[in-house]
Protein backbone atom coordinates (compact mmCIF):
# COMPACT_ATOMS: atom_id res chain seq x y z
CA UNK A 1 0.00 0.00 0.00
CA UNK A 2 1.24 3.50 -0.83
CA UNK A 3 2.01 5.71 2.18
CA UNK A 4 -0.24 8.72 1.67
CA UNK A 5 1.97 10.87 3.89
CA UNK A 6 5.26 9.99 2.19
CA UNK A 7 7.14 13.06 0.97
CA UNK A 8 7.67 12.81 -2.78
CA UNK A 9 10.78 13.82 -4.68
CA UNK A 10 10.52 17.59 -5.19
CA UNK A 11 11.42 17.10 -8.84
CA UNK A 12 8.02 15.44 -9.39
CA UNK A 13 6.30 18.60 -8.17
CA UNK A 14 8.57 20.83 -10.26
CA UNK A 15 7.61 18.76 -13.30
CA UNK A 16 3.93 18.87 -12.35
CA UNK A 17 3.99 22.64 -11.89
CA UNK A 18 5.43 23.26 -15.32
CA UNK A 19 3.31 20.69 -17.14
CA UNK A 20 0.25 21.77 -15.16
CA UNK A 21 0.33 25.12 -16.94
CA UNK A 22 -1.35 23.30 -19.84
CA UNK A 23 -4.40 22.78 -17.61
CA UNK A 24 -4.21 26.40 -16.50
CA UNK A 25 -4.16 27.70 -20.06
CA UNK A 26 -7.02 25.47 -21.19
CA UNK A 27 -9.24 26.55 -18.28
CA UNK A 28 -8.23 30.21 -18.55
CA UNK A 29 -9.10 30.32 -22.26
CA UNK A 30 -12.50 28.68 -21.77
CA UNK A 31 -13.45 30.74 -18.73
CA UNK A 32 -12.15 34.03 -20.14
CA UNK A 33 -14.20 33.38 -23.27
CA UNK A 34 -17.23 32.73 -21.08
CA UNK A 35 -16.66 35.98 -19.20
CA UNK A 36 -16.19 37.83 -22.48
CA UNK A 37 -19.37 36.54 -24.17
CA UNK A 38 -21.71 39.17 -22.77
CA UNK A 39 -19.29 41.97 -23.72
CA UNK A 40 -18.65 40.49 -27.17
CA UNK A 41 -22.39 40.10 -27.71
CA UNK A 42 -22.95 43.78 -26.99
CA UNK A 43 -19.82 45.00 -28.80
CA UNK A 44 -20.48 43.01 -31.98
CA UNK A 45 -24.31 43.04 -31.65
CA UNK A 46 -24.60 39.24 -31.74
CA UNK A 47 -27.75 37.17 -31.25
CA UNK A 48 -27.96 34.17 -28.87
CA UNK A 49 -26.90 31.67 -31.53
CA UNK A 50 -23.84 33.65 -32.60
CA UNK A 51 -22.90 34.13 -28.96
CA UNK A 52 -22.98 30.37 -28.50
CA UNK A 53 -21.06 29.93 -31.75
CA UNK A 54 -18.00 31.76 -30.41
CA UNK A 55 -17.78 29.38 -27.45
CA UNK A 56 -18.43 26.46 -29.79
CA UNK A 57 -15.61 27.46 -32.14
CA UNK A 58 -13.15 27.51 -29.26
CA UNK A 59 -14.39 24.19 -27.88
CA UNK A 60 -14.23 22.50 -31.30
CA UNK A 61 -10.67 23.70 -31.82
CA UNK A 62 -9.65 22.50 -28.36
CA UNK A 63 -11.05 19.10 -29.28
CA UNK A 64 -9.27 18.96 -32.64
CA UNK A 65 -6.04 20.10 -31.04
CA UNK A 66 -6.33 17.40 -28.38
CA UNK A 67 -6.69 14.60 -30.90
CA UNK A 68 -3.94 15.65 -33.28
CA UNK A 69 -1.64 16.98 -30.56
CA UNK A 70 -1.84 13.78 -28.55
CA UNK A 71 -1.11 11.63 -31.58
CA UNK A 72 1.75 13.86 -32.78
CA UNK A 73 3.35 13.81 -29.34
CA UNK A 74 3.38 10.00 -29.28
CA UNK A 75 4.95 9.97 -32.75
CA UNK A 76 7.46 12.82 -32.60
CA UNK A 77 8.19 13.34 -28.93
CA UNK A 78 6.10 14.71 -26.09
CA UNK A 79 8.52 17.41 -24.97
CA UNK A 80 8.99 18.82 -28.49
CA UNK A 81 5.26 18.93 -29.25
CA UNK A 82 4.47 20.37 -25.81
CA UNK A 83 6.90 23.25 -26.35
CA UNK A 84 5.34 24.05 -29.74
CA UNK A 85 1.83 23.90 -28.23
CA UNK A 86 2.68 26.43 -25.52
CA UNK A 87 4.09 28.84 -28.11
CA UNK A 88 0.88 28.45 -30.11
CA UNK A 89 -1.15 29.58 -27.10
CA UNK A 90 1.03 32.71 -26.88
CA UNK A 91 0.21 33.57 -30.50
CA UNK A 92 -3.52 32.79 -30.25
CA UNK A 93 -4.13 34.65 -26.99
CA UNK A 94 -2.26 37.67 -28.33
CA UNK A 95 -4.46 37.73 -31.45
CA UNK A 96 -7.61 37.58 -29.29
CA UNK A 97 -6.36 40.37 -27.04
CA UNK A 98 -5.54 42.67 -29.95
CA UNK A 99 -8.39 41.67 -32.29
CA UNK A 100 -9.89 44.78 -33.96
CA UNK A 101 -12.84 42.88 -35.44
CA UNK A 102 -14.88 39.72 -35.06
CA UNK A 103 -13.16 37.81 -37.93
CA UNK A 104 -9.76 38.44 -36.33
CA UNK A 105 -11.21 37.37 -32.97
CA UNK A 106 -12.33 34.07 -34.53
CA UNK A 107 -8.82 33.50 -35.94
CA UNK A 108 -7.40 34.01 -32.46
CA UNK A 109 -9.90 31.58 -30.93
CA UNK A 110 -9.00 28.96 -33.55
CA UNK A 111 -5.23 29.26 -33.02
CA UNK A 112 -5.45 29.38 -29.22
CA UNK A 113 -7.97 26.53 -29.14
CA UNK A 114 -5.89 24.20 -31.30
CA UNK A 115 -2.72 24.87 -29.31
CA UNK A 116 -4.41 24.66 -25.91
CA UNK A 117 -6.15 21.42 -26.81
CA UNK A 118 -2.92 19.86 -28.01
CA UNK A 119 -0.97 20.64 -24.86
CA UNK A 120 -3.26 18.89 -22.35
CA UNK A 121 -2.82 15.21 -23.37
CA UNK A 122 0.83 15.90 -24.09
CA UNK A 123 1.44 17.41 -20.65
CA UNK A 124 -0.12 14.45 -18.82
CA UNK A 125 2.02 12.00 -20.80
CA UNK A 126 5.12 14.09 -20.02
CA UNK A 127 4.36 13.58 -16.32
CA UNK A 128 3.32 9.92 -16.34
CA UNK A 129 6.40 8.71 -18.21
CA UNK A 130 8.62 10.42 -15.60
CA UNK A 131 6.84 9.56 -12.35
CA UNK A 132 6.64 6.02 -10.84
CA UNK A 133 3.15 4.55 -11.12
CA UNK A 134 2.64 4.38 -7.34
CA UNK A 135 2.83 8.18 -7.16
CA UNK A 136 1.02 9.09 -10.35
CA UNK A 137 -2.38 9.59 -8.72
CA UNK A 138 -1.11 12.43 -6.56
CA UNK A 139 1.18 14.02 -9.13
CA UNK A 140 -1.16 13.78 -12.13
CA UNK A 141 -4.23 14.90 -10.18
CA UNK A 142 -2.24 17.87 -8.83
CA UNK A 143 -2.41 19.38 -12.32
CA UNK A 144 -6.10 19.95 -11.60
CA UNK A 145 -5.01 22.68 -9.18
CA UNK A 146 -3.75 24.54 -12.24
CA UNK A 147 -7.07 23.95 -13.99
CA UNK A 148 -8.89 25.53 -11.05
CA UNK A 149 -6.25 28.26 -10.87
CA UNK A 150 -7.00 29.08 -14.50
CA UNK A 151 -10.68 29.40 -13.60
CA UNK A 152 -10.17 31.34 -10.36
CA UNK A 153 -7.51 33.74 -11.65
CA UNK A 154 -9.50 34.47 -14.80
CA UNK A 155 -12.63 35.07 -12.73
CA UNK A 156 -10.67 37.24 -10.31
CA UNK A 157 -9.25 39.35 -13.12
CA UNK A 158 -12.68 39.44 -14.75
CA UNK A 159 -14.15 40.78 -11.51
CA UNK A 160 -11.46 43.45 -11.17
CA UNK A 161 -11.83 44.66 -14.76
CA UNK A 162 -15.60 44.18 -15.07
CA UNK A 163 -16.13 47.95 -15.23
CA UNK A 164 -13.66 48.40 -18.10
CA UNK A 165 -15.86 46.82 -20.82
CA UNK A 166 -13.80 45.62 -23.82
CA UNK A 167 -10.52 46.92 -22.36
CA UNK A 168 -11.00 44.59 -19.41
CA UNK A 169 -11.73 41.66 -21.73
CA UNK A 170 -8.52 42.32 -23.65
CA UNK A 171 -6.54 42.31 -20.39
CA UNK A 172 -7.88 38.83 -19.60
CA UNK A 173 -6.24 37.43 -22.72
CA UNK A 174 -3.03 39.46 -22.29
CA UNK A 175 -2.52 37.65 -18.98
CA UNK A 176 -2.97 34.27 -20.69
CA UNK A 177 -0.41 35.19 -23.36
CA UNK A 178 2.12 36.32 -20.74
CA UNK A 179 1.75 33.15 -18.64
CA UNK A 180 2.18 30.97 -21.74
CA UNK A 181 5.23 32.96 -22.87
CA UNK A 182 6.95 32.65 -19.48
CA UNK A 183 6.26 28.89 -19.42
CA UNK A 184 7.67 28.47 -22.91
CA UNK A 185 10.83 30.39 -21.96
CA UNK A 186 11.39 28.16 -18.92
CA UNK A 187 10.96 25.02 -21.01
CA UNK A 188 13.30 26.02 -23.84
CA UNK A 189 15.85 28.21 -22.04
CA UNK A 190 16.35 26.61 -18.61
CA UNK A 191 19.17 24.01 -18.50
CA UNK A 192 18.20 22.98 -14.96
CA UNK A 193 14.62 22.18 -15.93
CA UNK A 194 15.75 20.27 -19.01
CA UNK A 195 18.05 18.25 -16.74
CA UNK A 196 15.15 17.42 -14.41
CA UNK A 197 13.04 16.14 -17.31
CA UNK A 198 15.89 14.04 -18.73
CA UNK A 199 16.91 12.60 -15.34
CA UNK A 200 13.38 11.60 -14.36
CA UNK A 201 12.74 9.99 -17.74
CA UNK A 202 15.96 7.95 -17.44
CA UNK A 203 15.18 6.88 -13.86
CA UNK A 204 11.67 5.70 -14.74
CA UNK A 205 12.90 3.82 -17.80
CA UNK A 206 15.48 2.03 -15.65
CA UNK A 207 13.42 1.20 -12.55
CA UNK A 208 9.72 1.14 -13.33
CA UNK A 209 8.25 -2.22 -14.20
CA UNK A 210 5.25 -1.35 -16.33
CA UNK A 211 2.75 -4.05 -17.20
CA UNK A 212 2.25 -2.39 -20.57
CA UNK A 213 4.58 -2.51 -23.50
CA UNK A 214 7.15 0.27 -23.25
CA UNK A 215 8.77 1.51 -26.41
CA UNK A 216 9.74 4.78 -27.96
CA UNK A 217 7.54 4.04 -30.96
CA UNK A 218 3.96 5.29 -30.91
CA UNK A 219 1.35 2.62 -30.25
CA UNK A 220 -0.60 2.08 -33.51
CA UNK A 221 -3.86 4.02 -33.46
CA UNK A 222 -5.66 1.29 -35.40
CA UNK A 223 -4.59 -1.30 -32.83
CA UNK A 224 -5.73 0.94 -30.00
CA UNK A 225 -9.18 1.17 -31.58
CA UNK A 226 -9.52 -2.54 -32.39
CA UNK A 227 -8.04 -4.21 -29.29
CA UNK A 228 -10.85 -4.81 -26.75
CA UNK A 229 -8.41 -4.41 -23.83
CA UNK A 230 -7.92 -0.75 -24.82
CA UNK A 231 -11.07 0.01 -26.82
CA UNK A 232 -13.43 -0.70 -23.91
CA UNK A 233 -11.73 1.67 -21.45
CA UNK A 234 -11.40 4.21 -24.25
CA UNK A 235 -15.18 4.19 -24.69
CA UNK A 236 -15.85 4.10 -20.96
CA UNK A 237 -13.44 6.93 -20.22
CA UNK A 238 -14.93 9.02 -23.02
CA UNK A 239 -18.44 8.56 -21.61
CA UNK A 240 -17.37 9.26 -18.04
CA UNK A 241 -15.59 12.45 -19.02
CA UNK A 242 -18.23 13.56 -21.52
CA UNK A 243 -21.17 13.39 -19.14
CA UNK A 244 -19.13 14.99 -16.36
CA UNK A 245 -17.89 17.69 -18.71
CA UNK A 246 -21.27 18.80 -20.06
CA UNK A 247 -22.25 20.41 -16.71
CA UNK A 248 -18.68 21.59 -16.05
CA UNK A 249 -18.38 23.21 -19.47
CA UNK A 250 -21.85 24.70 -19.20
CA UNK A 251 -21.04 26.58 -16.01
CA UNK A 252 -17.46 27.29 -17.02
CA UNK A 253 -18.66 28.97 -20.20
CA UNK A 254 -22.11 30.27 -19.29
CA UNK A 255 -22.33 30.83 -15.52
CA UNK A 256 -22.06 34.60 -15.90
CA UNK A 257 -24.48 34.54 -18.82
CA UNK A 258 -26.95 32.41 -16.80
CA UNK A 259 -26.82 34.47 -13.63
CA UNK A 260 -27.11 37.77 -15.51
CA UNK A 261 -29.80 36.85 -18.05
CA UNK A 262 -31.78 34.30 -16.02
CA UNK A 263 -31.06 35.20 -12.40
CA UNK A 264 -31.06 38.95 -12.92
CA UNK A 265 -27.75 39.36 -11.07
CA UNK A 266 -25.01 41.78 -12.06
CA UNK A 267 -21.86 40.74 -13.94
CA UNK A 268 -19.82 41.56 -10.82
CA UNK A 269 -21.99 39.33 -8.61
CA UNK A 270 -21.81 36.42 -11.04
CA UNK A 271 -18.04 36.69 -11.38
CA UNK A 272 -17.54 36.95 -7.61
CA UNK A 273 -19.80 33.93 -7.04
CA UNK A 274 -17.81 31.80 -9.48
CA UNK A 275 -14.51 33.05 -8.02
CA UNK A 276 -15.24 32.10 -4.40
CA UNK A 277 -16.96 28.83 -5.31
CA UNK A 278 -13.87 27.73 -7.20
CA UNK A 279 -11.62 28.78 -4.31
CA UNK A 280 -13.63 26.30 -2.26
CA UNK A 281 -13.00 23.71 -4.98
CA UNK A 282 -9.24 24.29 -4.76
CA UNK A 283 -9.31 23.71 -1.01
CA UNK A 284 -11.16 20.41 -1.46
CA UNK A 285 -8.82 19.30 -4.24
CA UNK A 286 -5.62 20.17 -2.36
CA UNK A 287 -6.78 19.31 1.14
CA UNK A 288 -8.64 16.09 0.40
CA UNK A 289 -8.39 14.61 -3.08
CA UNK A 290 -4.65 14.83 -3.71
CA UNK A 291 -3.91 13.47 -0.22
CA UNK A 292 -5.91 10.30 -0.83
CA UNK A 293 -5.74 9.86 -4.64
CA UNK A 294 -3.23 6.98 -4.41
CA UNK A 295 -5.02 5.08 -1.65
CA UNK A 296 -8.11 3.11 -0.71
CA UNK A 297 -10.36 6.18 -0.48
CA UNK A 298 -10.11 7.14 -4.17
CA UNK A 299 -13.52 5.73 -5.06
CA UNK A 300 -15.16 6.65 -1.76
CA UNK A 301 -14.41 10.24 -2.71
CA UNK A 302 -15.83 9.63 -6.17
CA UNK A 303 -19.16 8.34 -4.81
CA UNK A 304 -19.55 11.24 -2.37
CA UNK A 305 -18.66 13.80 -5.01
CA UNK A 306 -21.04 12.51 -7.66
CA UNK A 307 -23.96 12.16 -5.24
CA UNK A 308 -23.51 15.72 -3.95
CA UNK A 309 -23.21 17.15 -7.48
CA UNK A 310 -26.35 15.38 -8.66
CA UNK A 311 -28.24 16.47 -5.53
CA UNK A 312 -27.22 20.11 -6.03
CA UNK A 313 -28.69 20.22 -9.55
CA UNK A 314 -31.85 18.39 -8.48
CA UNK A 315 -32.44 20.93 -5.71
CA UNK A 316 -31.80 23.83 -8.08
CA UNK A 317 -34.25 22.41 -10.63
CA UNK A 318 -36.94 21.86 -7.98
CA UNK A 319 -36.46 25.38 -6.61
CA UNK A 320 -36.91 26.89 -10.07
CA UNK A 321 -34.80 29.29 -12.06
CA UNK A 322 -36.23 32.32 -10.25
CA UNK A 323 -34.58 31.28 -6.98
CA UNK A 324 -31.09 32.59 -7.57
CA UNK A 325 -30.30 32.21 -3.86
CA UNK A 326 -30.82 28.42 -3.98
CA UNK A 327 -28.86 28.17 -7.20
CA UNK A 328 -25.94 30.10 -5.70
CA UNK A 329 -25.71 27.81 -2.66
CA UNK A 330 -26.03 24.71 -4.85
CA UNK A 331 -23.31 26.02 -7.16
CA UNK A 332 -20.92 26.27 -4.20
CA UNK A 333 -21.74 22.65 -3.25
CA UNK A 334 -21.23 21.56 -6.85
CA UNK A 335 -17.82 23.25 -7.14
CA UNK A 336 -16.58 21.65 -3.92
CA UNK A 337 -17.89 18.14 -4.64
CA UNK A 338 -16.78 18.27 -8.27
CA UNK A 339 -13.14 18.03 -7.16
CA UNK A 340 -13.71 14.54 -5.72
CA UNK A 341 -14.33 12.94 -9.11
CA UNK A 342 -14.57 14.20 -12.71
CA UNK A 343 -11.46 15.63 -14.29
CA UNK A 344 -9.00 14.74 -11.48
CA UNK A 345 -10.08 11.09 -11.75
CA UNK A 346 -10.21 11.25 -15.56
CA UNK A 347 -6.59 12.39 -15.67
CA UNK A 348 -5.48 9.53 -13.41
CA UNK A 349 -7.45 6.90 -15.34
CA UNK A 350 -6.18 8.20 -18.70
CA UNK A 351 -2.65 7.33 -17.58
CA UNK A 352 -3.38 4.04 -15.78
CA UNK A 353 -5.52 2.35 -18.42
CA UNK A 354 -3.23 2.61 -21.47
CA UNK A 355 0.35 1.82 -22.56
CA UNK A 356 2.95 4.51 -21.94
CA UNK A 357 3.41 5.07 -25.67
CA UNK A 358 -0.34 5.44 -26.27
CA UNK A 359 -1.36 7.64 -23.33
CA UNK A 360 -1.19 10.96 -25.15
CA UNK A 361 -3.08 9.46 -28.11
CA UNK A 362 -5.76 7.93 -25.87
CA UNK A 363 -6.13 11.10 -23.81
CA UNK A 364 -6.25 13.21 -26.96
CA UNK A 365 -8.88 10.91 -28.48
CA UNK A 366 -11.17 11.00 -25.44
CA UNK A 367 -10.63 14.70 -24.87
CA UNK A 368 -11.36 15.50 -28.52
CA UNK A 369 -14.52 13.40 -28.61
CA UNK A 370 -15.77 15.07 -25.45
CA UNK A 371 -14.98 18.58 -26.67
CA UNK A 372 -16.72 18.03 -30.01
CA UNK A 373 -19.93 16.93 -28.30
CA UNK A 374 -19.84 19.62 -25.62
CA UNK A 375 -19.27 22.14 -28.41
CA UNK A 376 -22.58 21.11 -29.94
CA UNK A 377 -24.27 21.37 -26.56
CA UNK A 378 -22.75 24.79 -25.86
CA UNK A 379 -24.02 26.04 -29.22
CA UNK A 380 -27.57 25.37 -28.06
CA UNK A 381 -27.09 26.28 -24.39
CA UNK A 382 -28.05 29.99 -24.60
CA UNK A 383 -31.20 29.06 -26.52
CA UNK A 384 -32.10 26.34 -23.95
CA UNK A 385 -31.56 28.87 -21.14
CA UNK A 386 -33.85 31.34 -22.89
CA UNK A 387 -36.56 28.73 -23.46
CA UNK A 388 -36.47 26.94 -20.07
CA UNK A 389 -33.67 27.26 -17.51
CA UNK A 390 -35.25 24.46 -15.46
CA UNK A 391 -35.03 22.09 -18.42
CA UNK A 392 -31.32 22.86 -18.66
CA UNK A 393 -30.84 21.93 -15.00
CA UNK A 394 -32.64 18.60 -15.44
CA UNK A 395 -30.51 17.84 -18.51
CA UNK A 396 -27.43 18.37 -16.36
CA UNK A 397 -28.83 16.01 -13.71
CA UNK A 398 -29.23 13.30 -16.34
CA UNK A 399 -25.75 13.94 -17.65
CA UNK A 400 -24.14 13.43 -14.24
CA UNK A 401 -26.14 10.23 -13.69
CA UNK A 402 -24.73 8.83 -16.94
CA UNK A 403 -21.22 9.84 -15.83
CA UNK A 404 -21.77 7.90 -12.60
CA UNK A 405 -22.81 4.77 -14.52
CA UNK A 406 -19.72 5.02 -16.76
CA UNK A 407 -17.49 5.40 -13.69
CA UNK A 408 -18.88 2.24 -12.13
CA UNK A 409 -18.30 0.31 -15.36
CA UNK A 410 -14.68 1.52 -15.51
CA UNK A 411 -14.05 0.41 -11.91
CA UNK A 412 -15.51 -2.99 -12.79
CA UNK A 413 -13.23 -3.19 -15.84
CA UNK A 414 -10.17 -2.32 -13.71
CA UNK A 415 -10.97 -5.11 -11.28
CA UNK A 416 -11.63 -7.72 -13.96
CA UNK A 417 -8.48 -6.95 -15.95
CA UNK A 418 -6.19 -6.51 -12.94
CA UNK A 419 -5.19 -2.97 -13.90
CA UNK A 420 -2.77 -1.50 -11.36
CA UNK A 421 -5.01 0.56 -9.07
CA UNK A 422 -4.10 1.44 -5.46
CA UNK A 423 -7.76 1.79 -4.43
CA UNK A 424 -8.63 -1.74 -5.56
CA UNK A 425 -5.33 -3.18 -4.27
CA UNK A 426 -6.04 -1.65 -0.89
CA UNK A 427 -9.44 -3.33 -0.69
CA UNK A 428 -8.24 -6.74 -1.83
Automatic annotation (TrEMBL):
It is found in: Cell membrane. Residues 12-415 form the Major facilitator superfamily (MFS) profile domain. Pfam families: MFS_1. Keywords: Membrane, Transmembrane, Transmembrane helix. InterPro entries: MFS (IPR011701), MFS_dom (IPR020846), MFS_trans_sf (IPR036259). It is a multi-pass membrane protein. GO terms for molecular function: carboxylic acid transmembrane transporter activity. One of its GO terms (cellular component) is plasma membrane. The chain crosses the membrane at residues 21-40, 46-68, 80-99, 105-127, 139-161, 167-186, 230-248, 268-289, 301-318, 362-386, 392-415. PANTHER family: CARBOXYLIC ACID TRANSPORTER PROTEIN HOMOLOG. This is Major facilitator superfamily protein. The lineage of its organism: Bacteria, Bacillati, Actinomycetota, Actinomycetes, Bifidobacteriales.
Amino acid sequence: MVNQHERLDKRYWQLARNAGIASYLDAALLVSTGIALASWQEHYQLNAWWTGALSTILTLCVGAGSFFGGRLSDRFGRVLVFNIDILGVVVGATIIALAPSMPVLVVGLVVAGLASGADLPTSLAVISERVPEQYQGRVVSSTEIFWIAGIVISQGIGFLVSSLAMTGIRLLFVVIAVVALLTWLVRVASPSFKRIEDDLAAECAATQSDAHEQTSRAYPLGKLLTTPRYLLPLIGLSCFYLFWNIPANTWGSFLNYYMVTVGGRTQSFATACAFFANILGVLVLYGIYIRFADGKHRYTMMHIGLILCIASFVLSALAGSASWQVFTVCYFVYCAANMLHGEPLYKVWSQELFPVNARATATGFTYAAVRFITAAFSLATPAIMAASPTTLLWLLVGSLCLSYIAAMLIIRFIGRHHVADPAIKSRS
